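User: Structure tokens for this complex, please. No commentary.
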Amino acid sequence: MISRCGGQTRFSSLLASILFFSACPSFADSDPGSDSAALSANIITAGMVGACLLFLYVAFLTVTFLVKALKESAAAKKEAAAHGSHGSHKTEGFALPLVTWIGLAFTAIALGSIFIVGFMVLIETDLSSTSSISAFIITMGCVGFVPLALYVAFLTLSFVWKAFRGVSEVDVHAPTHAPVPADLAAAIPLNTQVTRRSFLSLLGWAWVAFTAATMGALSTMLRFAFPNVTFEPPLKFTAGFPDTYSIGVDERFKDGHRVWIIRDQKGFYALSTICTHLGCTPNWLLAEQKFKCPCHGSGFYPTGVNFEGPAPRPLERFQITLGDDGQIVVDESVKFQQELGQWGLPGSFLEYKA
Amino acid sequence: MLDGLKKTIKEMMANKPSPEAIKNEIAEGQVWKSIFRHGYPDTPRNRIMAVLSNVFLHLHPVKARHSGVKMSYTWCMGGLSFFLFLNLTVTGVLLMFYYRPTAEYAYYDIVALREHVPLGIMRELHRWAAHAMVISVWLHMFRVFMTGSYKPPREFNWVIGVLLLVLTLLLSFTGYLLPWDQLAMWAITVGTNMARATPFMGYEGPGASMIQIGGVHLVHGGSDIHFALLGGHFVGEPTLLRFYVLHCVFIPIVAATLMAIHFWRVRKDGGISGPL
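Assistant:
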């Protein structure tokens, strides 16, 4: 029992981790860019495959069980007919249809949900699109929870029925040394005594399934905290023609994009307005020719290098290039840090050509 | 009909029921009996019943040590903290009638509370009660520490208390953003930047760079705990809404639940501790 349960737990935790990671794709507008999006598409695909495998696995178990149940029922009837009317299997006719109906209902729902989800994937042809993926994942989480919950209910009901029937009809003192059943179908005892072992096995299965379903549902809730689209200014923006800038610090993109564009004798650089201490926005003090942070007093030269206060490193610079139309283009997703020796790299500085 | 009424009143006046009789009439009536299942609390049994059969009182000890309820011993700081929490709940709910958690309106609604709304002092009450609650919770903790009331069997209640302290500070922190002025913006900017350094979950934190598949980092500026907290890369309108919901719904519910456990455990652990 313990070793079996261990295997099941590993299976369910693997499943839960697939669901979890598939529910955490990257963001279209986030830093690492397309690599990450492609990766998340792969992870999501793995998650989908994993979830579908789960459905199929559960459906397989159900069908196996049903086949076994029907077979045993037929055998029991035959036996009863051969032995004449002992009356000990009177409830047989009642029991099997109940279990059968529950199992069939479950299978129908599981297969139906696979079909629905598959159809969703088909109509949402662009699988790399994050929004359709997340819609799919969330739907998967919700749809997946229903059949799994039903599965637990099915297992519980069928077991309870078996337990009562088994105790009332079978000699409980009879010794049993049955080997550990190899699969779930064998674990559900039909026409035999309910052993403590099979009881625990069933209970373990029910809980494992329930845990997996709950984890799946919770992962969708966690995913809910991460929006796909933020209504923040785009990281890449056009900053006008070079001629519109005079020498000095230009604050026109400070409010909208958190960038100072600074022109010196040679050209331009784009400086982040985010203080490297704790993220406030320093003020440009023209008379003192420095940036001064109002939060904790850090000071920076127009170059961005820190010289006073608690800021540990210079302000970051962003990529600044000239667009095809001759306008300056700033890309905040590419940054250059002085302490890493990146300020000399191409893209960190735009030479002015009159 | 009017005559009948007059007659009834005349009869009532003639009978002149005594206050005792009226009291008995009420206290023995079905309505009273359906609510209160015990007699007047003047006997030990009825006093115990009065506490045990009341949903609010039953969280409290039936009896407290005479020494344990001395002001010089408890400072009443736990009680004051709870009183302030109730105060904050009432004033907070009232403020919700006027405050809209959007970038467009939040600040002006706060200004309107000060300038136009009748008894807009409700907002000041909320603010000062919040400051007072942080202080009283700290002092309560200090008192519990100094009187050794964290010792067995009260260790678990100390743990609950620490959680309540954290929740109080989080309530204070989330409420700080809601006025949506410069102080709020930058205080929350500074405060939430710490989340970026959370181990494994913040993209600048230790271990975050280890979480990667095929050289692609899974924890970055668009997927870390800082992003989930703010609903974006920096403090903006989504942050305001998130903090509003956390401040008004999520944290108060958790705190109220823990408070119920906290008070109940005081009773279960033998009432207020005695002097050492």
